[in-house]
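Researcher: Good morning. I'm working through a list of sequences from a screen, and I'd like to move beyond sequence-only analysis. For each chain I'm collecting a predicted structure so we can compare shapes side by side. This is the next one on the list. No need for commentary yet; just the structure.
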Amino acid sequence: MTTANPTMPVKPKRSILTLQSLLLVIVFGLGLAIRLYHAKMPPLGFHATRQLRSAVIARSVYYQLDKNADPLLRQDAINLAGLEIYEPPILETIVGVLYWVTGSEQLW
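Model: Good morning. Structure tokens for this chain:
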């Protein structure tokens, strides 16, 4: 006769794990759908000043990476991007690198 060991953790049922996984996929799917709903809208649709600031910083990163850019344009972009620094430009740097990879600014 075997007895249950009280120190052994009880494994949850497989159906509960499946349900949790399904709910997680649904939540992430809804989040993605909400984000992509207005993906084709013009870029200045919401918080225009913040988006303009981010676009200026991304353009500055792009011109710093592009060796064929006009030096005056590059310097103007660097000067404009340095006017206000509130937070680390993480997303703007990613966008600037993507501009450089694609070869131009892509504002879809």
